[in-house]
């Protein structure tokens, strides 16, 4: 866990800063994730006691608010020393193509990371011969969370397909559960759509949807949207006003049966809510995605013009 923060330091050339200097880390790791980040910063300062670490966090799940602040800073010529970004087009399609980032390929060669990272992840952070960010984790996004005791009480099992999910939804509604699926703000709904698409199209179909081999007007792709609409009918109507944690709370409190969220939800339930994994709460692949690991990764890049580049 501590290695990611040290990797950020290496990315910024902090060997030269061992006796002093500053490092601003811009992220959305606040709230429930804040204490963990602060603990890692303390570990970092044990290695580099002369460096002042500026923990510049902007609250908001998936960086919804942080990205708006970052855009203002980047366009205003005041970039942070490093910032959190999801690996892939979220960085490459924005700040890399705009020539606002430094190529980190020399760093990867120096540290031996070309051999350490999976090829698929390296491909995700590469563009036109350069490598543009340092991944610090690999999350699984296609996870369905539930409470075993509540499912037993309601007489249902975790659905394995989206057709089963919709049938289970109707069963639970008939038992008085108005919103069997707990959903949060907009980005969590996009997150849900990805699981629906993967579950219906499969890994190859999912890839083809983005490489142009499968058109969005294809009946298979249209069916994804039709199913997604039916899944939304199983969710709470106040989703836009809830954080992802509050959506998880609905499941924990027995107000909903299921929540589709990444594996970081386990940390929230086990650490913040003090629930026991596998007993108080449990999980399964989101419907239709058994045997598939839908990955996302947080990474950090080095903007051109960072004040503490040295």
TrEMBL record:
GO cellular component labels: cell envelope
Gene3D superfamilies reported in the protein's UniProt record: Periplasmic binding protein-like II (3.40.190.10)
Keywords: Signal, Transport
Range of residues in the leader sequence: none
Highest taxon of the lineage: Bacteria
Record's keyword annotation contains Signal: yes
Cellular compartment(s): Cell envelope
SUPFAM superfamilies recorded: Periplasmic binding protein-like II (SSF53850)
Keyword Signal: yes
Pfam families: SBP_bac_1
Family named by the database record: Belongs to the bacterial solute-binding protein 1 family.
PANTHER family: ARABINOSE-BINDING PROTEIN-RELATED, BINDING PROTEIN COMPONENT OF ABC SUGAR TRANSPORTER-RELATED
Protein role: Part of a binding-protein-dependent transport system for a sugar.
Full protein name: Probable sugar-binding periplasmic protein
């Amino acid at each position: 866990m501590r290695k990611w923060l040290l990797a950020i330091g290496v990315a910024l050339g902090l060997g030269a800063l061992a006796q002093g200097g500053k490092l601003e880390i811009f992220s959305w790791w606040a709230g429930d994730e804040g204490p963990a980040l602060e603990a890692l910063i303390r570990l970092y300062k044990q290695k580099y006691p002369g460096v002042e670490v500026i923990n510049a966090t902007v609250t908001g799940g998936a960086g919804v608010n942080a990205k708006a602040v970052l855009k203002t800073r980047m366009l205003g010529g005041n970039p942070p020393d490093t910032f959190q970004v999801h690996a892939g087009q979220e960085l490459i399609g924005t700040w890399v193509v705009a020539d606002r980032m430094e190529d980190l390929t020399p760093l990867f060669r120096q540290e031996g990371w070309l051999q350490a990272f999976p090829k698929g992840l390296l491909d995700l952070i590469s563009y036109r011969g350069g490598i543009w960010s340092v991944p610090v984790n690999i999350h699984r996004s296609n996870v369905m969370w539930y409470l075993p005791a509540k499912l037993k009480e309601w007489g249902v099992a975790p659905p394995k397909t989206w057709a089963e999910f919709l049938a289970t939804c109707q069963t639970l509604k008939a038992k008085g559960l108005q919103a069997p699926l707990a959903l949060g703000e907009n980005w969590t709904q996009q997150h849900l759509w990805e699981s629906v698409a993967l579950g219906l199209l499969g890994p190859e179909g999912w890839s083809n949807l983005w490489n142009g081999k499968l058109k969005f007007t294809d009946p298979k792709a249209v069916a994804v949207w039709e199913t997604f609409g039916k899944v939304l009918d199983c969710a709470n109507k106040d989703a836009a006003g809830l954080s992802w944690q509050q959506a998880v709370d609905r499941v924990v409190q027995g107000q909903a049966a299921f929540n589709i969220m990444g594996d970081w939800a386990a940390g929230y339930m086990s650490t913040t809510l003090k629930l026991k994994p596998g007993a108080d709460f449990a999980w399964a692949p989101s419907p239709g995605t058994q045997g598939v690991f839908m990955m996302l990764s947080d990474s950090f890049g080095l903007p051109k013009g960072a004040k503490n580049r040295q």
